[in-house]
Each structure stands twice: as structure tokens, then as C-alpha cells.
Design brief:
CATH architecture: 3-Layer(aba) Sandwich
Distance between the termini: 20 Å
Oligomer: single chain
CATH topology: Rossmann fold
CATH class: Alpha Beta
Number of domains: 1
Number of helices: 7
Bound molecules: guanosine-5'-monophosphate
Number of strands: 9
Order of helices and strands: EHEEEHEEHEHEHHEH
Helix content: 40-55%
Low-confidence stretches: none
Strand content: 15-25%
Structural class: alpha/beta
Largest sheet: 5 strands, parallel
Shape: globular
CATH superfamily: P-loop containing nucleotide triphosphate hydrolases
Length: 193
């Protein structure tokens, strides 16, 4: 029998904190053997996003049907009418490939996964230098309206308050340092759990 024990790595943070960059970097490190948990969302694709790679883009109606049929491990209405969720089948798909799962999800979803799989999960909070820096980063990204950007910033202050509930906090003040720290956290967890 296989002795593979799949682990879960949650990276949560206010959007614009750099967590997606960190997650992409970790995925590029083959020795960590990670695969990305593709979430479902009812929001429209942004920029160059691809269905089935960045997200499974589905309608609000389909999303609500999946909630009813208990298909999600966790889900959140992250912004009004914008639902995001992790399908149970996604974790099964990745573990069946003998890989560990890495999640780029919001803080409430991240903490929910930690609660469901306390021993298998390393929950990491990525902290931005400041709310002002977050505003600058979100504006630079310029894929969204000012209204949407302001919505994300308002949510960020609430999310920052949850940081102490995570297993580890990475301060993303210097990207290279943050990438290195993230890599070490993941390899240590794989070695020691
Ligand atoms: P974005 O619209 O920028 O892609 O994502 C908005 C927020 O939703 C981000 O914080 C992102 O991490 C989060 N998110 C993405 N997928 C999921 C998911 O499956 N569950 C939860 N709870 N949040 C998610």
C-alpha cells in the first residue's frame, strides 16, 4: 500500500498582499510536490484568467446548486454576489495524484479548512506592509473598477485582524525574503508532520 499522506497548505491574505505570487512560486518548486486547488467562483474571469486553470467559472445559479448538493468543503460569499468555494472533489483529485494541495483562498475559508483537517493543514497568513501599500498594489494591477478596489480594501482591514488565528504569518515586505520563508515553512511541515 502507498504510504503517501496528503497535506494541505492554505495561504490566505487580503487581496493585493502578494499571496498569489507566493503560491505560484511554491508550485514551481517541483521538490515540494504541490498542486493548486482550483476553486469555483461565480465572478467573471479577469484579464487572462483561464477556466479550469485559475478557477472553475460557473454561474451564480450553478454555484447555489452545488451548495445545496453539499459539494463544497468550504464556500464564502467573499464579495456581494461573488461566491468562491473549494469542491470536495478537488482535494480528492489532487491527493489521488499523490500530491499535496495548496490553496489561495480568503481567510474565513482558510480557517475552515484548518478546522476540518487540523493535523494535515498548515495555515499561513500573508501580511501586506500596510493598507496604503495594499491600495497602491491593487491600483497598479488595474484590472478592476475603483468601486471594486475600495470593496477589497474595506475587507482587508477585517481580514488583517484574523492573522493570529493562523499557524504562521509571513510578512510580505520584501518579496524574495517572503518567498524563501514560504518555501522553508512548507518543507519543514512536510518533513515534520
Ligand atoms: P479574486 O477575485 O481576487 O480572485 O479572489 C478574491 C478572494 O477570494 C481572494 O482572497 C481569494 O483568495 C479568495 N478565494 C479564492 N478561491 C476561494 C475559495 O475557494 N474559497 C474561499 N473561501 N475564498 C476563495
Amino acid at each position: 500500500m502507498s504510504d503517501f499522506k496528503g497535506k494541505l497548505f492554505v495561504f490566505s491574505a487580503p487581496s493585493g498582499s502578494g499571496k498569489t505570487t507566493i503560491v505560484r512560486h511554491l508550485l514551481s518548486q517541483e521538490h515540494l510536490n504541490l498542486a493548486f486547488s482550483i476553486s469555483c467562483t461565480s465572478r467573471a474571469p479577469r484579464g487572462e484568467e483561464i477556466d479550469g486553470k485559475d478557477y472553475y467559472f460557473i454561474s451564480l445559479k450553478d454555484f447555489k446548486n452545488k451548495i445545496k448538493s453539499d459539494a463544497f468543503l468550504e464556500w464564502e460569499e467573499v464579495y456581494r454576489d461573488n461566491f468562491y468555494g473549494t469542491l470536495k472533489s478537488e482535494v480528492e483529485r489532487i491527493w489521488a495524484q499523490k500530491k499535496h494541495v495548496i490553496f489561495d483562498i480568503d481567510v474565513a475559508g482558510g480557517l475552515r479548512i484548518k478546522k476540518k483537517f487540523p493535523n494535515e493543514t498548515l495555515a499561513v497568513f500573508v501580511k501586506p506592509p500596510s493598507i496604503d501599500e495594499l491600495k497602491i498594489r491593487l491600483k497598479k494591477r488595474s484590472t478592476e473598477s475603483n468601486e471594486k478596489i475600495n470593496m477589497r480594501i474595506a475587507k482587508a482591514s477585517v481580514e488583517l485582524a484574523t492573522a493570529p488565528q493562523f499557524d504562521k504569518i509571513i510578512k510580505n515586505y520584501d518579496l524574495d525574503v517572503a518567498l524563501n520563508e514560504a518555501e522553508n515553512l512548507v518543507s519543514d511541515f512536510l518533513k515534520n508532520s
